[in-house]
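Q: I have two molecules that I believe assemble together. Could you output structure tokens for the complex as a whole instead of separate predictions?
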Amino acid sequence: GEDVEQSLFLSVREGDSSVINCTYTDSSSTYLYWYKQEPGAGLQLLTYIFSNMDMKQDQRLTVLLNKKDKHLSLRIADTQTGDSAIYFCAESLRTGGFKTIFGAGTRLFVKA
Amino acid sequence: EAGVAQSPRYKIIEKRQSVAFWCNPISGHATLYWYQQILGQGPKLLIQFQNNGVVDDSQLPKDRFSAERLKGVDSTLKIQPAKLEDSAVYLCASSLDLGDPQHFGDGTRLSIL
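A: Yes, here they are, computed for all two components at once.
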């Protein structure tokens, strides 16, 4: 089946690292994405990783992919109060038009 | 480049009324998506277009929802008649082609009274 699961909440102190985790069930994914959603806004594409990669780094963001365990993580280094938002994990499946399945989102709280 | 444009930003209607949303994707993007995002949940795909053709509308409640992308650029999503459970944010997204990363608009927040 197609399912993407994330924990609902994460709270960190400003300056610490945040790690948001995601698990998915379908092994036919092509891309895996991380999106950020701030209140009243749409989803902002943060980063993505091809399913044949293990890691991708982009400034403060590090994405790790473990295909064997179907586990994806997003690490935010030096977390700032402006990083407070909901983070969505999503997988793109190569099934009849590249369907994208989203998780329910992880709400990140950053304490000053 | 200009992002995905959606209007209106907010809409309040009574149940059984009709409503329409408009989306203008990023220039040159062939693929356009409409999603429904209920409070506390991730986006759920309603319909996906490739140019002016429908790729996937399996999750669209066709008895009340309709969408079109006649010239392969702008798109409209209509609900008629609206039900209370349609209260949600309706997000439009576009991508260069099928399978490419999607870029989202800010959405239309629909409240049904």
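A: One point stands out. The two ends of chain A are 40 Å apart (CA to CA).
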